[in-house]
Task: inverse folding
């Protein structure tokens, strides 16, 4: 694989993984809030 391809793809992969990480963290937070609300009711 050409090094130029890596230079082009690296920022895209980093941004994609960062977005997935943030979405996953937000989803876990929402699930935890939902479970906590379920216990309080």
Result:
């Amino acid at each position: 694989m050409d090094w130029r391809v890596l230079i082009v793809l690296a920022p895209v992969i980093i941004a994609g993984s960062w977005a997935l990480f943030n979405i996953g963290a937000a989803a876990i937070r929402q699930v935890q809030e939902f479970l906590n609300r379920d216990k309080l009711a």
Summary: Residues 1-41 form one domain. The chain has a mean pLDDT of 93. Helices lie at 3-40. The chain has one domain: 1-41.
